[in-house]
Amino acid sequence: LTGAQDGSVRMFEWTRPQQLVCFRQAGNARVTRMYFNAQGNKCGVADGEGFLSIWQVNQTTSNPKPYLSWQCHSKTTSDFAFITSSSLVATSGQSNDNRNVCLWDTLVSSGNSLIHAFTCHDHGATVLQYAPKHQLLISGGRKGYICVFDIRQRQILFTFQAHESAVKALALDPSEDYFVTGSAE
């Protein structure tokens, strides 16, 4: 799966030189993040205008429409994570009201899909990491702060400053004992 500054999203297969599917044409908002879900049957694309779109991967048409597309943040959606069986999605980004980390239910109507919005990360959240074993969500922000959320209780457990500049990367070890942060500095 490839995404570009011009907004295009294309899927390729290892053994074929041509694209299999073009999910989005050039001329859309820049792609900020893309992932497959754990089952590999869905892919999601976040963009610079605050949208998250999700497609079924096994498409027979060359230009399929997303089965779900909604604006998660008013400025940009920088990252997202499929939670559990992909019916729950977490997003990070920047919104005018500082609700910069959100939980969404993909199985309900778009007007009711926002489950919870966390007010955190002045100037926006840049990255997100889900820890399934502990049911925790970790986010990094533009000012170098890290927030850890309990998804079950929908609350922020703690916040600390890890860097002097924007957090650009988060990684979690497989046993979920540690996480690592990387920054713009």
UniProtKB/TrEMBL annotation:
Q: List the Gene3D superfamilies.
A: YVTN repeat-like/Quinoprotein amine dehydrogenase (2.130.10.10)
Q: Where are the WD repeats?
A: 160-185
SUPFAM superfamilies, per the entry: WD40 repeat-like
Keyword annotations from UniProtKB, A to Z: WD repeat
Please verify whether the record's keywords include Secreted: no
Query: Is Calcium found in the keyword set?
Result: no
Task: Give GO cellular component annotations, separated by semicolons.
Answer: RAVE complex
Record GO biological process: vacuolar acidification
* PANTHER family for this protein: DMX-LIKE PROTEIN 2, RABCONNECTIN-RELATED
| Name of protein | DMXL2 protein
Say which species the protein is native to: Grantiella picta
